[in-house]
Amino acid sequence: xxxxxxxxxxxxxxxxxxxxxxxxxxxxxxxxxxxxxxxxxxxxxxxxxxxxxxxxxxxxxxxxxxxxxxxxxxxxxxxxxxxxxxxxxxxxxxxxxxxxxxxxxxxxxxxxxxxxxxxxxxxxxxxxxxxxxxxxxxxxxxxxxxxxxxxxxxxxxxxxxxxxxxxxxxxxxxxxxxxxxxxxxxxxxxxxxxxxxxxxxxxxxxxxxxxxxxxxxxxxxxxxxxxxxxxxxxxxxxxxxxxxxxxxxxxxxxxxxxxxx
Amino acid sequence: xxxxxxxxxxxxxxxxxxxxxxxxxxxxxxxxxxxxxxxxxxxxxxxxxxxxxxxxxxxxxxxxxxxxxxxxxxxxxxxxxxxxxxxxxxxxxxxxxxxxxxxxxxxxxxxxxxxxxxxxxxxxxxxxxxxxxxxxxxxxxxxxxxxxxxxxxxxxxxxxxxxxxxxxxxxxxxxxxxxxxxxxxxxxxxxxxxxxxxxxxxxxxxxxxxxxxxxxxxxxxxxxxxxxxxxxxxxxxxxxxxxxxxxxxxxxxxxxxxxxx
DNA sequence: CGAAATGTTGACTATATTCAAGGCAAGTGG
DNA sequence: CCACTTGCCTTGAATATAGTCAACATTTCG
Lengths: 261, 261
Fold this sequence. Notes:
By secondary structure, chain A is α+β, with helices and mostly antiparallel strands. Chain A has two domains: 13-159, Jelly Rolls (Sandwich); 167-247, Winged helix-like DNA-binding domain superfamily/Winged helix DNA-binding domain (Arc Repressor Mutant, subunit A, Orthogonal Bundle). Chain A contains seven helices and eleven strands. In chain A, the strands form three sheets. A four-stranded antiparallel sheet of chain A has the order 1-8-3-6. In chain A, strand 4 and strand 5 form a beta hairpin. At the A-B interface, strand 5, helix 2 and helix 3 of A face strand 5, helix 2 and helix 3 of B. The first copy, chain A, binds a DNA duplex through helix 6.
């Protein structure tokens, strides 16, 4: 991925918006995404305000924020999270390229969750009322938004099953498999040479409802058993079968072809 | 609630469909639900196939089922769940009157979760392609479906926070408060005399990712402390403040006014 | 009235947390 | 260039929360 060594120094946004037209969005070339009609692309294009570039570790949406716009994650990784007042944090799900962000805090409501970047990232920004405009002007795209929302819910469902009913080993195995599959679907080589893995162990712990220490020990155990390897910010699957058995996951698990807003 | 002693004996469906018109649906009288235009009601009416009555403990949608229709829960309680192959079960969320069911298993996909009744219940049945028809024929109702889906996701988000980061006591307190608020919003008296509580301790355990025994002990502890009382299938709040402090919940938490499909 | 489901409690065990300490790599500033 | 800090990873030991096992009480229901 020719990710520019983009100024981790440049503070908030910077960079002139050499925003690509939606029709030329490189994501659309991927088999993961549906083809959309010209009219639909024009609609999306007309609602898009600009690109937003954020460095690693920045907050895109603050918990409790009231006026957040809508975004599509165009490049990079991020995550949604909630925290308790004493600081305990739960990561709700990870966001990869193509994920649509902000449907939850509908109406003038406060965002019930925060969003933070895991890598340098680029977002397409839509104004707040675009959600309604999409439905009004294109039933198809409206349907797609519903689809994306339902799909994201099913990811959270999966996490809840993990956190509620799987052991630490099983949770880790599940997370590695699911993230690998999602990341691989965004690459041409389908993950032969590993996939990017920008999470720290703290992120893994916060996503799985485990402590940092226990996460570390479990991760090492699986790695020593030869099930996977993490290094230099990449994840390599060494024994998918064993991981899948641990995770109790079946099917090819290839992410379904999906719309892109 | 004039719930007929409906034949728990009558096996699957039985009962002639004395189906009420959507416009006369008693739910619409509640302040919890938005007012809808006549055209919207007609649309919903035209897509509705029939009423479905199920007794307690019946499966509405089986995990992995492929052809499930859409439903609106009209009366009674139910829940969504997932299981691992060795039987461990996680309840994803509870369904109360007005909840829309089945958006997740979009397309010809298999349902990723099951749905089971907690009480005798009545569902409005919509044919499979209604989801698209709703979007096509009414942007407003399409938007509403997106809203409902996003809203349900935010309930699952809340559960995930609980199960991932709250202690057993805190989880129970959170569940009691949230369920109480939802149930109270469906009653005229807003829960002064308690609300129905059809869950067994096993359901509570499965929703919170706890064992049955530990759930029992924690529930008893809170009850002995005078925070709540459960009896004869009803839940009474005795000390909402203490519960809310335990749960780390703020705001009036009154459920938002919502659309009804 | 007996069977089955649900609720309750105590004793024991285990998984996961907390505490503590140290290593390594990268970035910062003198 | 080199101390120094900071963030992330790693490990061992002590502790605690929650799980498992077992038994019995209570309620529901056929």
